[in-house]
Amino acid sequence: MPATGALGYGFEIALPVGYEQAVALTRSALAAGGFGVLTEIDVRATLKKKVDVEFRPYVILGACNPPLAHKALSAERLIGLLLPCNAVVHAGDRPGTSVVAVIDPVVQLGATGRDDLKPLAMEVRALLRQVLERVRRDAAATPETSKES
């Protein structure tokens, strides 16, 4: 069973599915958790284009839960500097594996020094942890033939 790791600033899971499948599972889990993907950065393509280096398949998905973002923006107008919540998907070290990670909003919003934002950050943290759990569950249910992408 893949482990959930705490990074100090986020949470990650290792998956027994390839990169493309992991990206699709992550997008689906984010949507199911009420998050829309506002931005997508293809890190591999960007690094190749800008500095001509090879890098593993790696994408940053900027996810937003509109009702919760509205609460945060209503409480702190400049909180947009810390939004959206980022999710990262990258190819693992072994073929047919990948890693999914999400930011810890408690750490992220903690940068404001505002204790009144902590309950909101805790709510978003719980949702993002559920997203990771959904990705883990769905990856485990993926047929063996589609795990190598």
**Number of spatially distinct domains:** 1
Compute the number of helices: 5
Element-level helix/strand string: EEHEHEHEEHH
CATH class: Alpha Beta
Low-confidence stretches: none
Give the integer mean of the pLDDT values.
93
Give the class from helix and strand content and strand pairing. Answer: alpha+beta
What gyration radius follows from the Cα positions, in whole Å? 16 Å
Determine the CATH topology: TATA-Binding Protein
Largest β-sheet summary: 6 strands, antiparallel
CATH level-4 homologous superfamily: TT1751-like domain
C-alpha end-to-end distance: 19 Å
Summed up:
With 149 residues, the chain is an alpha+beta fold. It has one domain: TT1751-like domain (TATA-Binding Protein, 2-Layer Sandwich).
What does this structure look like?
The protein is α+β, with helices and mostly antiparallel strands. The protein has a single domain, classed as TATA-Binding Protein (2-Layer Sandwich), CATH 3.30.310. Helix content is 42%, strand content 24%. It has five helices and six strands. A six-stranded antiparallel sheet has the order 1-2-6-5-4-3. A hairpin with a 6-residue loop joins β5 and β6.
